[in-house]
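Slide 14.
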Amino acid sequence: MEKVFVTGYAKFPSDITGNKVYEEIAVGLIVNKESGMIIDADFSLVTRTGKKFMTDFLIDRNLYEIKKITDELRKYYFGQAQNAVVAALKSAKRQFVSKTK
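Slide 15: predicted structure.
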């Protein structure tokens, strides 16, 4: 299995702690290059539980199914950074597709 590392970025809302600490949210994904399956994930979220939730949520999901991922994420992740997390994931998917074509 060939693995690749891909990142995505988005702006945090200006009124949350994440903006004061990082300004932008970064997502780093290790992805199976052939299948698009997410093997591991990391986020620049402030809380350990937020990072753990997102990592657990994404492992074994397919990056090619970004709409399904983000739709489900909106159902289960109620953090104030929700829109930024979704935007960063979409950015990572665009990066993955552009580099693996």
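Speaker note: The radius of gyration is 13 Å.
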